[in-house]
Amino acid sequence: MNISVTVQLQTKERIRRVCSRLGYNIGRDAASGRYTLTRRRTLGSNYLADIKRILLKSPGCIFDVGAHEGDSAVTFLEAFPTATIYSFEPDPDTYNRLQENLKHKRQVHPVNSALGHHDGTQLFFRNRSDQTNSLLSAAPTAREFLTSNDLMDLRSTTTVAVRTLDSFCRENGISSIDLLKLDTQGYELNVLNGATEVLARLVPLIYLEVSFVSYYDNQPLFPDVYSYLFTRGYRMTQLYETGFQTHNYLVAANALFVHESLGRVTRTHGALPGESDDRRMVWRS
Where are the alpha helices (DSSP H) in the chain? Predict the structure, then answer.
């Protein structure tokens, strides 16, 4: 190989590595021979930042399904201070704490109900750790995947109200949801089955807990949830809050799904305010 060609290739490779470390990709236009420098889109490290980056704005309406004591609602308000949030919590004791914690947050609307695939009532399982409470009973295999064996030991049961997302939105005149967050301890697919009208109108982002092992009886696992959303036009952005506390493989995580209509990067950069993503010519071959 000609020495000058070798030097040129080595120089280009050094430039490529430097640009990569700085967060840029190099592309080449076949027609003009020009090389362009483009800031790499970084998704996956922070789901709140990713939500804003994908929407190119803060979400206006958030459904926080499985709100527990309100921590998630507070997190959303800190990241998206202009959002309106509907926080659903079925357990009566936990709901009382939710109301107390959010009583000064006028943008948050607590709802003492579960969401599911039908309207009515259902038996609710209350465990030693109330964060594991569910409309599903604990699976015999659950203990294997818990940091403490007794977290899902049954404490009591109660009957709770169950609504579908479709009927709730119809009755409350809600026409659009920017972000649907689901943390319903294995009941996520049932919630989605009760949201066919809402999903048909397009919910751009869905952030939900997914499981790769069975914590609950008859619990849909990640492949079931993924397949359901994929066939309805949703594509997975990333897994978050994965953790490996009990095994050297994933047992659960949170997943962000974006509807394919928003999934394509059609702009040259898609930067958030204050960021610079402009394309610049580097060299011509």
Answer: 3-21, 47-55, 71-79, 92-101, 165-172, 188-193, 196-200, 222-230, 260-263
- From 73, 82, 59, 75, select the one nearest 176 (Cα to Cα): 59
Query: What is the rounded distance in angstroms from the CA atom of residue 137 to the CA atom of residue 64?
Result: 22
For the stretch 227-273, pLDDT in tens is 999 999 999 999 999 888 899 999 999 999 999 999 887 544 444 44
With beta carbons less than 8 A apart as the criterion, state whether 41 and 275 touch: no
Place of tokens 């009760």: 194
- Dihedral sign computed on CA atoms, order 279, 42, 61, 193: positive
DSSP category for residue 268: S
> How confident is the model over 134-159, as pLDDT tens digits?
999 999 999 999 999 899 999 999 99
Q: Is-contact 207 51, C-beta < 8 A? A: yes
Token output for 225: 């949830």
| Domain annotation for the chain: domains and CATH numbers | 3-41+276-284 (no CATH), 47-263 (3.40.50.150)
Phi, psi of 69 (to 5 degrees): -95, 5
CA distance 64 to 79: 14
